[in-house]
Amino acid sequence: MSISNEALQKLVQEIENQAIQSQQQIGIVRSQIAIKQREIRKLELTAKEVSELPSDTNMYEGVGKMFVFSPTSEVNSRLTTETRTLSSEVENLGKRLQYLETTFKNSREHMDQIFKSGGRA
């Protein structure tokens, strides 16, 4: 059984569009992962520095254009929470990246299969 040239061309175009879309999304997700990993690293370094300070040290956090007093324990708690949240987001982005890479790979394999079969289904 053979597929008409028009149907084959339309099928190849749809698969190619899906592959291109997946490839673009892969780039976006990779950059989001890199950004979040940098943020995690900054939070970890900040937490390390804060943990080395005496517990009675006055700490001030920037809020807009002003600084607000925050106890060391609150700062440590906030840093830990933000790190956990970002780690969770990186994990979810990793799953999305894996899905997109699989979609891209499958699209390419389908196109190769179509070209190798010469348009026969």
Automatic annotation (TrEMBL):
Coiled coil: 5-53
The entry's keywords: Chaperone, Coiled coil
InterPro entries: PFD_beta-like, Prefoldin
Any GO CC annotation of this UniProt entry: prefoldin complex
Domain of life where this protein originates: Eukaryota
Pfam families for the chain: Prefoldin_2
A single GO molecular function term of this UniProt record: protein folding chaperone
Family to which this protein belongs: Belongs to the prefoldin subunit beta family.
PANTHER family per the UniProt record, alphabetical: PREFOLDIN SUBUNIT 1 (PTHR20903:SF0), PREFOLDIN SUBUNIT 1-RELATED (PTHR20903)
Protein name: Prefoldin subunit 1
Natural source organism: Cadophora malorum
Upper taxonomic lineage: Eukaryota, Fungi, Dikarya, Ascomycota, Pezizomycotina
